[in-house]
Design a protein that fits this description.
CATH topology: Peroxisomal Thiolase, Chain A, domain 1
Shape: globular
CATH superfamily: Thiolase/Chalcone synthase
Number of strands: 4
Radius of gyration: 13 Å
Strand content: 25-35%
Oligomer: single chain
Order of helices and strands: EHEHHHEE
Largest sheet: 4 strands, mixed
Distance between the termini: 9 Å
Number of helices: 4
Strand order of the largest sheet: 1-4-3-2
Helix content: 25-40%
Structural class: alpha+beta
Length: about 120
């Protein structure tokens, strides 16, 4: 039985010197594409490349911090190189299920100035 369906996906690139703000652009593109406000998300998983990066991105996007990395992020859980996106999505899906939330947002920055963002909706 599927845990969730993908509502939308977006990617964005910024100049490499602004790498850690790339998720802001990716999330904004995603929200425009799926026509949902950030407030619609029950949970948000953002890769914590660095704590300051997470805080800056959350501030720019207006995160409700009670919904962000509720089990700890990469600083607490680890940052498996090449598998961070999978770890973030798995954490998000299982926590949405546990809390019976509806929408989840996963996002991370990529080397060289890229970012990805994905919205999911819990099924069942």
């Amino acid at each position: 039985t599927p845990l969730a369906r993908i509502v939308g996906y977006a990617q964005a690139e910024v100049e490499p010197k602004w790498l850690f703000l790339a998720p802001v652009e990716g999330v904004r593109r995603l929200l425009d594409r799926i026509e949902l406000p950030i407030e619609a998300f029950d949970l948000i998983e953002i890769n914590e490349a660095f704590a300051a990066q997470t805080l800056a991105d959350g501030r720019a996007l207006g995160f409700d911090w009670d919904k962000v990395n509720v089990n700890g992020g990469a600083i607490a859980l680890g940052h498996p190189i090449g598998a961070s996106g999978a770890r973030i999505v798995a954490t998000l899906l299982h926590e949405l299920q546990r809390r019976e939330g509806r929408y989840g947002l996963a996002t991370l920055c990529l080397g060289g100035g890229g970012s990805v963002a994905m919205a999911v909706e819990r099924m069942g």
